[in-house]
Amino acid sequence: MHIHPAIRHDPAPDHPGWMTWDVTGPERFNNSIGRLLVRRGDDGRDWCRMFPAQPHSNLGNKVHGGALMTFVDMALYAGGAMAGANVAMAVTLDCSVQFLDAGELGEPLDAEVELLRETGRLVFVRGRLLQGDRLVASFSASLRKAVLPR
After folding, report:
1. Which of 32, 60, 82, 137 has the least C-beta neighbours within 10 A?
2. Rounded CA gap, 65 and 60, in Å?
3. Taking the model in full, what pTM does it have?
4. What pairs with residue 131 in β-bridges?
5. How far apart are the first and last CA of the chain?
6. pLDDT of 79-126, one tens digit each?
7. Backbone dihedral angles phi then psi of residue 46, each to the nearest 5 degrees
8. Which of 112, 129, 104 is nearest to 53 (CA)?
9. Homologous superfamily, domain 7-144
C-alpha cells in the first residue's frame, strides 16, 4: 500500500474494522471534511467514511454538494491507496459526479471505491456514495501519477 507520509493510518477503536485516514502536519483543505475512515472490502472494493455535520451543510440543511465532491476526491486517493494503487502524489485529471439524492447530516456517508485500472502514469477509479442503503451519488475519475525527478 502506498500511503503518503503525512497520512496517519491506524485502527479506529470506535469503528471495528475501519482505519483512520488523518492528514497530519499544517492545516490543509483535506481537513475540511473532518474525520475520515477507510477499510478494505472483501470483493475488490474499498470503503471510505465521513461523518457529515453542520459545517458540511447547505441552506436546506442537507450535505452541501461541494462537501460531497470534496469527499469523492479524497475517496479517490484513500480508496485507490487501499487497493494498492500508487496515488500518494497523483493529481485528479477528471472527475464526474452524478448527484442522485440528498446527503443527510448526522449519518455516516460511505464511499464505495473500485480501482478499475492502473497503468504506468494513470489510475482509473469509480464508485458510489451511500448512506445506509440509499444511493446519494455515483462518480468516476482518472488520476495522473506524479512524475518524480530521477
Report:
1. 60
2. 11
3. 0.90
4. 134
5. 22
6. 888 888 888 889 999 999 999 999 999 999 999 999 999 999 999 999
7. -120, 160
8. 104
9. Hotdog Thioesterase (3.10.129.10)
